[in-house]
């Protein structure tokens, strides 16, 4: 197979668009089509099918796309490894993060790291824990910071910080008029939660399950900010990371309370593939992450 043709296929498959791929590759659309036709002829099978204006991968196309993603991720890794022979003055780190650490924790850490190593390019990909785990397994990320230990045995996880979760309510919620809130009170409430696959949601459900309580999930949001606004509108209550509520508590958007009778917490973990070569630049970032967390404890 022609490496150039595989590259063109990979970009078209990524965008599901000939025009977008042509723009990224600085080629004309007919040229892209010709290369794909030659690749299909060589393989003896179709890689795309067109329905109306949309193109879709065939079964063969989906299988080939899995491999081309790995091929070009390894090519990029080789390029970065050679760059890093020049020291820590240039290079690139592909970092994944689950939503809570990605939005409320990592920006401060990345800002400090960028200040210390201005020539380093930092690429951050934020998604829920399950999606980030898949991307590490596919070698699309060098490492990640997530709020849940991965279940996949090929991944190594190093805990570096404890994240405490707190309860948030609307300032007008009836529970606030009670002298004491109990677990039984919470079992009767409407909860607004993150989507399945979220490390925050799993930590909450696991903690309450140990107490024999199944929470009533009334609404699901893909972001903690969405949850906070829904809680502020008195659509239900929620439990979120204490990192996520510092500003909105000060503005009075929501009221923050400790969760009664139980402690809900989880560990932030650095995660990477067990077979992944960790070049000096990535090892330096891992060290900086642990030092940053240690500095927080001292403060």
Can you give a write-up of this model?
The protein has 299 residues and is of the alpha/beta class. The chain has three domains: 3-76, Arc Repressor Mutant, subunit A (Orthogonal Bundle); 80-161 and 267-298, D-Maltodextrin-Binding Protein, domain 2; 163-266, 3-Layer(aba) Sandwich (D-Maltodextrin-Binding Protein, domain 2), CATH 3.40.190.10. Helices cover 45% and strands 23% of the residues. The chain is built from twelve helices and eleven strands. The chain has helices spanning 3-15, 18-25, 29-43, 59-83, 99-104, 106-116, 129-137, 183-187, 199-209, 224-232, 246-250, 280-298; strands at residues 48-51, 54-57, 91-97, 120-126, 143-146, 155-169, 190-194, 216-221, 238-241, 255-257, 265-273. The strands form three sheets. Strands 3, 4, 5, 6, 9, 10 and 11 form a seven-stranded mixed beta sheet that branches. The chain has a two-stranded antiparallel sheet with strand order 1-2. A hairpin with a 2-residue loop joins strand 1 (48-51) and strand 2. Helix 1 packs across helix 2, helix 1 (3-15) packs across helix 3 (29-43) and helix 1 packs across helix 4. The protein is globular, with a radius of gyration of 23 Å.
């Amino acid at each position: 197979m022609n490496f150039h043709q595989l590259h063109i296929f990979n970009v078209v498959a990524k965008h599901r668009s000939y025009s977008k791929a042509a723009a990224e590759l600085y080629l004309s659309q007919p040229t892209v089509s010709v290369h794909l036709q030659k690749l299909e002829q060589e393989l003896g099978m179709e890689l795309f099918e067109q329905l109306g204006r949309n193109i879709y991968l065939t079964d063969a196309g989906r299988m080939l796309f899995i491999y081309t993603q790995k091929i070009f991720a390894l090519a990029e890794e080789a390029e970065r490894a050679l760059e890093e022979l020049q020291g820590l003055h240039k290079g690139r780190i592909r970092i994944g993060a689950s939503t809570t650490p990605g939005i409320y924790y990592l920006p401060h850490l990345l800002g400090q790291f960028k200040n210390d190593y201005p020539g380093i390019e930092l690429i951050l990909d934020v998604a829920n824990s399950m999606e980030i785990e898949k991307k590490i397994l596919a070698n699309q990320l060098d490492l990640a910071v997530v709020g849940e230990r991965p279940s996949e045995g090929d991944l190594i996880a190093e805990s570096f910080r404890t994240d405490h979760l707190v309860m948030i309510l609307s300032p007008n919620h009836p529970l606030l008029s009670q002298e004491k809130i109990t677990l039984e009170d919470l079992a009767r409430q409407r909860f607004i939660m993150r989507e399945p696959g979220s490390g925050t949601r799993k930590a909450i459900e696991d903690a309450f399950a140990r107490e024999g309580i199944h929470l009533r999930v009334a609404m699901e949001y893909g972001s903690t900010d969405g949850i906070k606004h829904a809680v502020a509108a008195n659509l239900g209550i929620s439990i979120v990371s204490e990192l996520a509520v510092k500003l909105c508590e000060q503005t009075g958007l929501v009221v923050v309370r400790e969760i009664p009778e139980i402690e809900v917490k989880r560990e932030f973990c650095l995660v990477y593939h067990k077979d992944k070569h960790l070049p000096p630049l990535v090892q330096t970032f891992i060290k900086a992450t642990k030092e940053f967390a240690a500095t927080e404890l001292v403060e």
